[in-house]
Design goal:
The chain is mainly α and about 200 residues long. It contains seven helices and no strands. Helix 1 packs antiparallel against helix 2. The radius of gyration is 31 Å and the shape is rod-shaped.
Length: about 200
């Protein structure tokens, strides 16, 4: 096209072609950077999801930081924002993973409440997870006591755990006072009922 342009118009069209080329290059470069950033963010997200199943969160966080630092497509500010968001997610996902694996709710509650295991969780997320864990612990504890009350009613033997503690004694650290008192009464009734039948 440029070869067909008359000589007197060539400077004007030369400028137009240069501006067009620069515009195309700018758009292409912006698109390419956006795609590279998106791909990098997806890779970090996938890595975070894998790390959430780690039994050692300290190593998992170090591994995550190493991958994030090596990423050339995010600015330092973007990396900082990504890290804060991802570590909060990673720790919440780790709690869910531990629950799904049958880890003791007492251990999870201890780690959420007083230890350094989940140090990147926001206070809002931590409070929500503690509430969920306490609710789950209360439900499983009440079920364990109910099961033991049923056995007690049938056999008259006081069921104990591996350390010799009854489920009712363990419930004292989990249940609310009114719930615990209700279970104590049911426990006593079961003992009396078995004694009367025997």
């Amino acid at each position: 096209f440029f070869e067909t342009v008359p000589e007197r118009l060539r400077p004007e069209y030369d400028d137009k072609l240069f501006d067009t080329e620069r515009g195309f290059y700018g758009k292409a470069a912006t698109f390419a950077r956006g795609e590279q950033k998106r791909s990098a963010t997806n890779a970090i997200e996938d890595h975070k999801n894998r790390l959430a199943t780690s039994s050692n969160l300290e190593e998992a966080v170090a591994d995550y930081d190493e991958l994030l630092a090596a990423n050339p497509w995010l600015t330092p500010i973007e990396k900082d924002e990504q890290r804060r968001k991802d570590l909060d997610d990673l720790e919440e996902m780790n709690v869910a993973y531990r629950v799904s694996q049958g880890d003791s709710l007492d251990n999870i509650l201890r780690d959420l409440s007083g230890s350094d295991v989940y140090k990147h969780l926001t206070s809002k997320r931590r409070a929500a997870l503690v509430y969920k864990a306490k609710t789950a612990a209360s439900a499983t504890t009440q079920q364990a006591v109910d099961d033991d009350i049923a056995r007690l009613r049938k056999t008259g033997e006081v069921p104990t755990g591996p350390n010799g503690e009854t489920s009712l004694a363990r419930a004292a650290t989990v249940l609310a006072p009114n719930q615990l008192e209700r279970k104590r009464l049911e426990w006593q009734e079961a003992q009396l009922e078995h004694a009367a039948i025997a």
